[in-house]
Structures are given as structure tokens and as C-alpha cells.
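Form 12-C: Joint structure prediction
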Amino acid sequence: MNLVPLVYFIALASIMFILGVLGVLLRRNALVIFMSLELMFNAANLSFVAFGRFYQIIDGQLFVFFVMTVAAAEVAVGLALIVAIYRSRGSIDVDNMNVLKG
Amino acid sequence: MIIGGIVFVIIAIIAIGSALGMLLSRNTVYAALFLIINFVTISTLYFILGAPFIALAQITIYAGSIMVLFLFVIMLLGTEKLPRSKAMPWQKPLAIGLSCLLLIESGVLIYQQALRPSGWPALVESVTSPSDIGLALFSQYLLPFEITSVILLAAVVGAIYLTRPERIRRKSGTDERSEP
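Section 2 - Result
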């Protein structure tokens, strides 16, 4: 069961990362851009765990744990910012977020 | 090898398909649900890689709390659907072209590394138990762990400050000005 080579995991992680990049570049909805960011975090986490597993070190999993907590903090602040922007601007389209003044 | 490969390919197809579904769906709620499917498939990959703690943390933190937060905000704002905007028509082909370039580049790098005889490390059967992670977290990684707690506290305070109603914020602002 556990004999899948490391190349497969790295290839899957890179494809998922590129899909996340495409989501950030193509979509105009701020919430979907945040979700694509989460997808990129996940791709990086997957390669962390895969490399840590194949090199027999535990540090990969600990880094994934820290990435998860920082991602949770980032999502909390980011969604609060989106809610604040929606209150002042009435839209979460990133094309409309072109002025700094609230 | 063959059974493991088939299982991996099925999981990878589900993961990539759900990521594509998130990317292409016009409704934000559907995008969030596709992303939850993706997180769960990635957590099964963590189980295959012998990391049960990270797999369960993935399900509880990502699929459990972060996506619930996303769904709450989507339904709070009522912005399930956005009208298509035609602000920058040159952006879409440029983004797709550059992403294809990145895909080709990473594919070439991975292929070159796979061709090398000693390029990838050999596989050893092992499962990392959660107690090992706990020991490393509270001995070697104690300082980053504490810093993470400070980051979480700052994020909570910042989120509460940002989403306060405008009325209260203005009142507290005038209070601060009138105090001295």
C-alpha cells in the first residue's frame, strides 16, 4: 500500500499549487481568491509531509502544523477585512477595491 | 505497488477534480463545498503517508473550522454570485499562459530529478505517532509554538476590532480624543 513513489506526491502538489495560482489570477471574487490561497497552502503542506515521510524526519509534519495555525489566523483576519470592505463598499469584487480610502 | 498506485491515482483525480470545480464554479457556496472535498482527500493522502495527527488536524482545522468560517461569511454577506466583470480582458490569457509555463517548468524539474538514480530517497515503512509530534512540539519547537499562540491572539483581537460596528468605533474614537 505504501509503495507509491515520492514523485507522484510532488507532481500532485505542484498541480494543485498551479490550480491555486490560476484561481488567484482569474477569479474576481475576494472569497474565492482566499479559497485558492488555502489550496496553495495545502499543496505546500502535502509536499512538506511527503518529503518529511520519505526522508524520515518529523520536522515536515511540525511545519505543516505551524502552517495550519498561521493559515487559520490569516483567514480570520482576512475574512474580517472582507466583511469590513463589504460594509463600506457594498461589493467584494476585487476590481472595485482600487482606492485605499474607506 | 499496483494497488497503491491505483488508490493514489483515484485520490489524485478526486483532488484535482475538486480543485478544478472550486476554480470554475460560479457559485461561492459550491466553491467552498468543492474545497472541503479537496481537503478531505488530502487528509486521506496524509493517512497514506503515515501522518495520522496531521490528517486529523487537517479535517478539524481546515474542513471543520476554516471552511465553516468561509460559509458563514458567504451567507452573512449574501454574495453567492458575482456578475462577470470585463475589467481587464488581457488578463485571462496571460494568466493561463504563465500558469502553463509554470506547469511545464515544474514538470521538467520533477522529470529530471526522477531520472537520476539517487534522486529520490528510498521508502521506509513507518507511522509517525502523535506522541512523537507532541514531544517534538514541546521540546525542540517550544518557542515557535508559543509565538504561534501570540499570532492567534493577535488575529482574534484584530478580527474583533475590524468587524466592530461603525457606530461603536466612532464613539470610542471620540472618547479617546476627549479623555486627554
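Section 3 - Comments
The first helix of chain A runs from residue 6 to 26. Helices of chain A lie at 6-26, 30-54, 59-89.
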